[in-house]
Records
---
Amino acid sequence: MYRTKVEHVHRILLTFMTTIVLVSGFSYRSLAQHEKNKIIKRYSIKDGLSQAVVNSIEQDDKGWMWFATDDGLNRFDGYSFTSFKFDKTGPNQFHDNFVQRLFKDSKGRLWVSSRRGLYQFDLSTQKWNVFLNPDKAGNNDVSYISESSAGKLWIGWYFGGIGLFDPQTNLYDTTQHFDLKSTATITVFEDSYGYIWSGEQSTGLDVFRIREEGKNPEKVIAYSASNFLPSQYVKCFLEDHLGNIWIGTTKGLVLFIRAEGRFIVLDKILPPQRGAFSLLEDKDKTLWIGTQGNGIYTVDLQDFDGRKVERLSSHHVEALDAFDISQHTIRSIFQDRDNNIWIGTHGDGIYMVSDEDKNFMKVEVKRIFAAAESAVPFYGLCNDEDGNIWAGTDSKGIYKFTPEGKLLRHYEADGKPGSIGDDVVYTALRDYNDNLWFGTYADGIYRYDKKTDSFIHYPRSAYDVPIPLGHRVSLLFEDSKRNIWVGATRGGLSLLDKASKTFKLNSEAPMFRTVDVRTIAEDKKGNLWLGCYGNGLLAYHPDTREVERIFVGTEPSNLLRSNIVHTLAIDKDNVLWIGTGGGGLGAYNLNDKTFKLYTDENGLINNTVFGVQIDEQQNVWCSTINGISRLDKTTGTFFNYTSNDGLQAGQFNPGSSLNNIPKGYICFGGTHGFNLFYPLKVSNSKIVPDVKLSGFQLFNKSVKIGGATEDDILEKVIDETQQLTLRHDQASFTFEFTALDYSGPEKCEYAYKLEGFDADWNYIGNQRTASYRYLPPGTYEFKVKATNQPNSWPAKFAHVKISVAPPLWRTPAAYFTYVLVLGLAAWSIYSIRKRQTHLKKRVKSEKNKRRREQQLVQDKLAFFTEISHEFKTPLTLIIGPLEEMMSRENNETASGKKLHMVHKNAHKLLALINKLLDYRKIESGKMMLTIQEIDIVPFVEDIFLNFKELSNRPNVHFDFYTEEKSIYTWVDPEKIEMVLTNIVSNSFKYIGEGNAISITLKKESGANSREFVCVEVKDNGIGIAKDQIRYIFDWFYNGKATNHISSGIGLALAKKLVYLHKGEIYAESTVGVGSVFTVKIPLGKDHFEPHEVIIDHDRLPELDLEIQEHDGHDDGPVTHAKKGLKTVLVVEDDEDVRTFLKEYLATDYRVIEADNGKQAMEIAFASNPDLIVSDIMMTEMDGIELCHTLKHNIKTSHIPVIFLTARSAHSQHKAGLETGADVYLTKPFSPEILSLTINNLLQARENAKRYYRTMFLTDEKPNIVSTDEKLLQKIFEVVKVNMNKTDLTVDTVSLEVGLSKTILYKKIKQLTGLSPIEYIRSLRISEAAKLLRTQRYKVYEVVYMVGFSDLKYFRKCFVKEFGYPPSQLLEKEHQ
């Protein structure tokens, strides 16, 4: 009980507090007509104002607003403030931040008063000019500035009296003296009748008149009396349109009526003892009075004729919009050229009262709980027959307002008899009989009874179909038949039964039970258009009781793009306007069924439309989330309005709209109140804004006027600059601009263009900067324009010309220099060419000679190379038979010794040929080193030992020296051995009469800490002449050997091989003393490039060792297949070599011959040999193509191929093996090595056959790689699929694998050693063994599973395959 009382008291207090806020919130409604619904703006320190005490206000001729504060001078452009403060850098700067008074004279000059003198602020250069009165040296505190009729300035000094300043001569007038009661002058001005009025701080006022120039002014004693003033402290003067003088003092207002020559104290205009600090008469002849601590009062002087002063009355402006200024001190009031009123306060910044009216009136109710304040949201709206507006809320019941926004009554659900039952009212309706209906969230419908000022409840019928949410009324609509339709949130569509005072579901259409209707519109034919939440747009035809789906669904065919419809309205053209949730505004023509959609892309302010109303001119008004849009149907143009136009700050609410056609106004409700406006009175700004250039930047830094840096190129403000000249490195700049529209700067849009660069205007919305980067040299003109009218641009614009200078190297002087230099260069070239003409023939002759010499060397080298290749074939026929004869002859016999000598010299000849070929490889860049890491010490020592027997010559001492036990390095041993052998061999050849040769091995360090192994070969032989030593490493150079004939290629080859190792080789020699040959090889392998070498980590033994280990005879005849000898096909175009091979191999193999690749391929396909030995270089088809063809044909892919060729290059060797060859041997070859190779390949084939036969015996899946294995895999799969078929034949398998029966036979025979029938039987037996191992089948079952029809025959085959019967399989394998 106690808690209930407390809550009731709390609710009463809360309501009371809300009501108080309402009264204060609507106090501005009683303002004088000229302030009512004006645009109000406030600017303070947070907006950039330097100080909140504003002493004076002025506007220059360009339109900039200027404000004098206690902390500097401020310029304002409608967007931002620019402050000018004390700067002690020079005498022409401002020396005091306290600015008392601003004044613009008739010439447009801006004058500033301060405690330190009179200043002129140059608006062009933004520099200060100070003018001190020498007679006031001790006191230059200028309190006021005004202009005389002669164009001079009246100056008032605080404790300095008054005087004149001539702006033309910049001198003070010292000839005139004023008889003042006090020099503490506060204000001074000259009226239109030539009277000078001086107001002092403590002695009232003095009035003077100048009768003759050059004489002292005459004091008007009658006007200078002060006993009639309510205060002796005079603050301001004002002359009105009648010539009367208004005098503001610290304790009241006085009026001097000129016609009567008397002063009247206006004690009814201001409260008692209130001072008038500032005065202004505006264009509407309204007097504005700024008071001390009491805000602003206004007096209407339109009907005032200077008489009947007692009829004058004032109005106290307690608030400007939402700003309470009733307690402020007003220090200055100013009217600008657009008739806006500017108010400077003491501590609260600046207020601006626009001359333009707000287009929209805002009505809001504040609610306060604890310390929090919020606005009451409005939903359902309707008006009564008296024109009052009824507004439903989401928690505060119903408010009743006058059309002017005055609150009349507040109805709440307080539980009293006749009150509304729910505070949540979402919809409202005034019916044809002027009854007011309200739909609530939780308690159905209420009708307002005007007679009893109470509400009558209309609940959902108790006899209605039960609907869980049927009481949540979100829609009330009356059709032309006076039926009232009731839409409930997710509660179907119902009809009101006035007789039973209930509403119940409409059963005419089954859809009405569940449909969520939020809005209804009725067309001329009586059809009802239903806007639904989730069901799009429906059409209900009452005559047929049919419901038609118009726009619904999520498919692209739904033109509405949304299934949520918030509002509907039909205009006079029978167009249905559809406001959707997120889909924009739809226009559905009910005559021709055409549809058009408007979205934000067309200018709509937001795509969620909550309310739509049509005005008298058929404009479409839409309330949205972000504001209101007006669509002009004739042009298709949208005009958008936001909170800057006076709209409530929140979003608008669904269905909250009202169109009072008789009164001509529209209302839209939202989360912060509702807005009322008269469509015919809504207009755009009357003022075309004056656009100004406000700033200029280079590289994003503002350019100072008259600055010290080279980038400070401005001498005047940018809006007065006609031409900008930029260097080429200053061609990146930014312009700042502004439109001087102080009533609505946020509505201004801008467009700019750079003539000479931009093809068209750039429309940038509210952006106020334009940047350009790295403009090319040239002349341009920057233009900018602004508008505050939607879709309308004025012709005037601000502009400035820009000249971007070219860089120094593109100036006319530079081009002249270029021409001059080019001319001189052309002359020089001509002279040089003329002098060189006679040399051309000599140069050409020398080139031809050099070319012939080079060609001769190449031809010579090519000749020797070709000859060397040709030598290899005869050497093969010499060495081969020779080795065979040596193997049968004892070396101790005379014949054996001769054969050994022939064999030795044949190999020497082969070594010379190989040297020549190696040199050719090096010259052509085709030789690669095969390097490995070796210990060089034993390696060199072995070479020493090989030559040791030569040192047995008389008187020749051959020694080896080294201090290193081991030195590991990476080399190609074969090539290094060739190098050292050549050098040591030369030492023996050229020893002459000498007697000593030595090899010294050591380690040395070179540059960059690189270590080398150094081998020195020293002798005391005949030596080499100095003029010959540089040629010893040249091709075909030979010295004078004593007993030997030199080829002249040994040292040349050695040098090339050392260079391939990145080493050095050089010689030092003296004739008759001897020679020293030095070889340096770097340690490690980092000096080799990867593409230059082949790294051999595990080199195979040399073939000649194998030759020595083999005695040339086999242990016995090699047994191969059961049927005779193996067949070897020899392919060789040289008949002698082919004959030799045939005779050599005939004892062990059946040899067939072919002299070219084409013939060999035909023989291979026909005879299917066991192995092929082939040359590479042949006519018609070479060996490479032959091998590739054989290896890629299923018929011959199993045949091993040996290449026997004179081509020994690494790349050739690699290419041969890549085609599929099994072995690559080079000529001259060892017949024994060839025989061993053939035997090993054939033996490998036998091993392969055994593998292929057992390939599918186990369950393990084999690794299938080669073509032959793939063939066997395919045969196995065919047999496995047909395993249980006893009629499986070779023909069937041949057909499945795609080979002829003959080829299949040969292929299986070559691969497995079995015939196809035997191989198939083997596969069946193998599969049987697998099945038996599973122990799931009996032997007789397995017999038929693997395709045998006879158990006895199966057992016989099984024993033949495994050696034991199938019954013992598991036992044998277990053992």
---
Amino acid sequence: MPINTSTATGSIALGLVGLDSIAAFKSIADRIFRRPQYDEASLAKTAYRDSDGEATEESLRAFSDKWQRVTIAVFSVIGLGISLSLAVLSTLRDDLNNPVLNWLQFTIWVLLAIQAIAFFTEPRPASRFRLGQFAFVGSIIPIAVAGFEIQQAYLSQDILFQNQTWIRLVAGAIVSASFRGLFTILLPRRPNVYFEGGVVDKEFTITALGRYSFTWASDLLSFTVGRTNLEISDLPKLRAEKRADSLRAKFERAQGTGNIWKGIFVAHWRPLLLQMSLTTVIGFLTFGPQLALFNILQSLEGRDSEGWTPTRSWIWVSALGIFMLLYSTVEAWLFWSVWSKIAIPVYAELTAVVFAKSMRRKDAKHTKSSKEEDEAQASAKALLTGEDKKEEEDDDEEDVKKSRQSIINLAAVDARRISDVTSFLYMIPSAILKIVIGCSFLVNVLGWQSALAGLGVSVFIAPMNIAVTRRYTNAQVKIMKLRDQKMAIVTEVIQGIRQIKFSALEEQWQKRIRQVRENELGALWASFYYDVFLLAIWILGPIAFASVSLTVYTILYGNLTASVAFTALAVFGSLEVALAVLPEIITNLLEAQVSASRIDEYMASSEKVTNTVPSDSISFEDATVAWPAEHHPGEQQGEEERFQLRDLNFHLPKKGLSVISGRTGSGKSLLLASILGECDVLGGIVKVPVPPTLKNRFDHLATSANWIIDDAIAYVAQMPWIENASIKDNILFGLPFNESRYRKVLFACALEKDLEMLPDGELTDIGANGINLSGGQRWRVSFARALYSRAGILVMDDIFSALDAQTGRHVFEHALSGELGQGRTRVLVTHHVALCLPRTDYSVLLENGCVKYAGTIDELQKSNHLADILREEHAAEETHQKAVDDKQDVQDSEGGTLQKVISNTSHRRPSTTANVNATTTSKDAPKKFVKDEEREKGSVRLSIYKAYFKMGGGLLTWATTASVFATYAVLMVGRSWWISVWTSSSSSSAAKPEMFQALLQHPMSGSNTVTTGRPEVDPQLTMYLGVYIGISALACLVGAVRFYCALSSSVRASRNLFDSLVYAVLRAPMRWLDTVPMGRLLNRFTADFHLIDSRLGYEIAFLLAEMLDVCGIIFAGIIVSPFVIVLAIALLAICLKLSMTFLAGARQAKRLESIAKSPVFEQFGSSLAGLVTIRAFSKTEAFIETMYSKINAHAQSWWAVWLFNRWLGIRMNLVGAIFSTLTAALVVSLPGMSASMAGFALSFALQCNAAIGFALRQYSNLELNMNATERVVEYSEIELENQGGAAAPAAWPTEGRLEVDNLVVSYAPDLPPVLKGLSFTVEKNQRVGVVGRTGAGKSSLTLALFRFLEAREGSIFIDGLDVSKIKLHDLRSRLAIIPQDPVIFSGSVRSNLDPFEEHTDAELNDALARVHLISSSDDEATLTSQTATPHPAGGTGATTPNTATAQTTNSNLFSSLSASISEGGLNLSQGQRQLLCLARAIVSRPKIMVLDEATSAVDMETDALIQQSIRAEFDATTLLVIAHRLSTIADFDRILVLDAGKAVEFGTPRDLMDIENGVFKNLVENSGEKAVLEKVIFG
């Protein structure tokens, strides 16, 4: 052995080990020289905490790495002794030369022994784990040196090989180093740590070996498989750096002022760098198996030559296994790093960033104006007809972007697209690298001419690729826009489903949704169409590449050998993936760019800015304010077009009650918005106290003494916003529970009686937006939240509208002006000025776009302005009536609105005690109103697949598709087989095709295959080339057609699934719709249909392709040897076992992931709906924290899915590597195996691992994604309302006579009745007022009338026809209802009045005039002459009076039928929405109409005008009116008084007033407007 070489090698090794030992020396030195204040060793045994979490006592006791450290020390000592022995032996004996190397090795082992010492001096387990990583590298170095020594001795035929002592010592050193290295990676990193009660993911807890082999997933997978119902809490918590709060903070720091891509790349540069590094390694390893194949086949080709030895073949067989093993390991870690470090975090952070932005954004409910009437009409028509006009698309897109659903789509679709692309980005450099390496390989194998000719094909088809890619990208852009439009309509339908069902408009809305859906599917099919072209090009590329290259090679060299052909084919196979994936990833990247641009645009939108000046009280100084509108850079917008309140000058008294009043639409809500900072201040100054941040309030330290924070603000919106939580949680709103204050709030808000009646009292679960509460209950819960809060400033918008007079007085006396209200600044918008007058400190009257009067009550009285303010109050003289005693029970006679859901009373039980505490001390867990989302167990049911395939076209369609796929698979196997025949003929002077006759279905003629004896020319070259090119060309064509068939069927299935879901949802029972949160429905319409539309067709196609590939490989194995089949079956069995284990766990995790998305969407929807309230309470950060927890929960389940996926991947790759190596060994060992047949076998053996792996993985993907179909089918197969019955007569009802006979109704068959033998008769054209306490049955009566509740006993007759016998559509379409909470759809005034163009403009304008929304020619003194609505170009919200001058007043929106209405009608005031609904009813002219507090939100004078209109317009209509203002129904023909589901009183108002101690009489006497009512009743 050369001394210099060995010494240099030993010196380098020693240097490397020295560097490797620095960490150990530093650790030991720290222990020796650093004097900690506490005993770290003892502390490490009793406590462990890091950023991820904290260890428990139990986990600390379970943690131990002592035996690993002892073992490392033992083998270090053994190695040290052996190395010393070798050094001494080589020094003492002359025949064992090179003692320098051995002494260098001894020094290396000294350093390794010092490393072992550090394991005992270092007290911290995580630091010992890090030392273990260094020690592992240190263990490899002496093994490498020993190997080098052995190699040198072997090459030089050294005498060392004859010395048994030396051999044993060297072997002992290698074994010692190996075991030492093994145990260094068996050191656990830390004890199990816990976060929020759950164990943190163990990736960085377990040993290094366990981490790199994914064994930590095994325990979780076993646990998951054993669970029948997996929950989020069962999954490990995310590590700190993967949690949404950390990700968002890191992303925003990285992004700065840049775009989304900058933030992603800067925030994740480390994992991206790791990704690129692993990609580079894989790029080289990809061609390792092909290199081994080439050398194996070359060796076999020389088998018959002299001097051939099998050694070379066996060396390359071993190399094949090593290459595949390395490739599998690196690939597994590449995929894991891609998903765990990039894809999942990117999705989580983008969702968090979008939500945080939504909490900051300006609340601009902007609608575009049409400059020309004909343009507006065209726009409205397009909205209804679904015409896809280019000039309208931009405006439509702008409107859609401002909808809440479009914001949710940013998280549901766009963030997911970007996340997916970031997970695939590594494929671009990977594909480029593979192409470069592959082409270099081909140049060596085929020659540069052949390789260059093949590359020429790729260059030729590149322009086609680019052109189609551009079209495909445009189609994707269009899909995203149409998807937003579809979801905007679907969201509105879900939100307005109640009104749709009451009006029997299900079919019309289904058609409208279908029109938009067809536009989307048209764009989807266009993208599929272009994608099929791309697939055809991608299939053509590699096949043409191979065909041209092999053809040129054959022409140049006259023959084709097996080693060249099959190696080239294997390389072409690798290049096929690279060439195919590159354009696909680029198109996906372009799609993601579209999504990123959408998010960037949203992130650049205007935010709420502080436009108020800090002060200790609220005041306005020459202020002009307008509803917020979005301003785009460079956009010029005339402020005169925006709705404004001008020249505001007043000062609201601190800790006093200020009342804001004015006509409907006068801008009262805008004034409150300006106090909250939710407006644009166009001029002047608005002074408002600055509330402290949530962190600076120290709520957990709050006591009764310091409860009120003077500068804090609480807000009660006109449309009360309620969380999906219990009543108690809604009132507390995150504050600590103060028993005394809480009870006072319940009493002051008159909620005690309600809690007694609710199924679980204060713990009753409230549905989304308080769906199972009456209107009055929602208002009072919302008010209770503000009253309980610590706010010193209460801003309240019209809290009395939904309350009857008695309840309103109670709330005023005990809440607004009682103990809980005193000492707080209260700003109240109300029409009930007289009620509040006795305690009012300051009054403001809005009119004509400015303040008409403002001042204290004394000032207004002195100036005689108070009378003007009170003129619209009908009962001013009664306002001084003494309030009822504090302890008197409140007879809450507020009417439950039709928003009260069926389930409210469905669980009611008789109250056993009046004590509210009784509801909270119940041992039974409170019932959830919103049930937990159900999910299937086990594998996806066969019926789901049947349903999907049936909707995709049925058996014949899919059988045709499968046959096309089978044809392609046969062609690909046939192509390889033909090359085998070809190369076999080229390998001898006379080809013998009879050898292959057994493989054909008919004999081949041998005459054409015999050569003429001239070896330099193959006369049959043309035939071989012709057949090969023919097969290749046919494969290109069939390869494209197969995807066309699969995708066309998938579009058909998607269309039918969507139609069935829409049909079911529109016809679902109200009880089901009320108990299913909107987020769950939207999850199915967004995320699930995104999978069904865009992924499922490809999943089925890829599964078919991979399954047929496996069949082709098995067929190829049968041709070669039955032993290959045995190996293939063994491989298949092991892979099946692994896949079934994986599926059992991953299936549950995937279902959990699907469900975990719903709460994220629900939180988005709820928070956007209550944005102003949340910001007013300064709860923005609290809601962001809540969203973090929901995002983390989703990420946990998604993390588990991919962890299980990688667990499966690395194991299947390992099994596949073993299979390929054994197959190669079998081929080499068979003596009669020709090189061509060996190439045929090995080319498929190399694919077998990937094919079986891909097939099983694809099946897993299909089943996991079929979960989306399962969820859609689940909601498509719900029990629907009965659609049967007889058709009603065409003109029915002609009179409107209503008879209710002994009606018994319950909400479910197993629940007690809520209407108990109710009987009454309403003659035609009578007006009947319905009154009663909450729970009396008013809502139930209305629901029964419309057959939302079916009669258990008794019947309802309308004009003598039993309503239970006729079709639901006929019944509901002939009746009409105006709910308290009006439902307005986006579009135009016309589309809301007449959504399906059944009436003339004159009729529509007449209806608007009759509800005083516009002036009429015969009544110029109507409401419209004094009030107006915002111009559609401006912001949104309530409005101010209109005059002739555009510069100083606001125009009337309703003057144009084409004026735009924003989503939910949010650019109208609540009163205007109610009036528009009333106008809609006037247009329909029903014979029977129900009004449920239809004018509660309008001022008194407007209400009086509306009542006149109702009397005039509905004189030929039977009216049932639920009202809180008794003055509204005091002059009606009949009054129906309900109590406990029975009619306790029914008669004329005069007759009921004559009943001693009558219920109605009691209501009148306690109403606060007794004198006025008696005057109306008695005349």
